[in-house]
Amino acid sequence: xxxxxxxxxxxxxxxxxxxxxxxxxxxxxxxxxxxxxxxxxxxxxxxxxxxxxxxxxxxxxxxxxxxxxxxxxxxx
Length: 76
What we know:
Layout: H1 3-18, H2 22-30, H3 33-45, H4 47-60, E1 66-69, E2 72-75
Antiparallel strand pairs: 1-2
């Protein structure tokens, strides 16, 4: 299974387990250092992930889990 699909399935399972929104499930997932590192690596190297991260940033504003510093994206 592609890593991106593992992330999606992980978020789905967290949503179900915690009765959480997508944003809340992502917050829970990003509390795990391994997933956090993976997400930062992906949003800075995989163009599809980068576009999704930039969209997340645009739609969530200050509540975003991602921040931009120049060309680099990081998890808050």
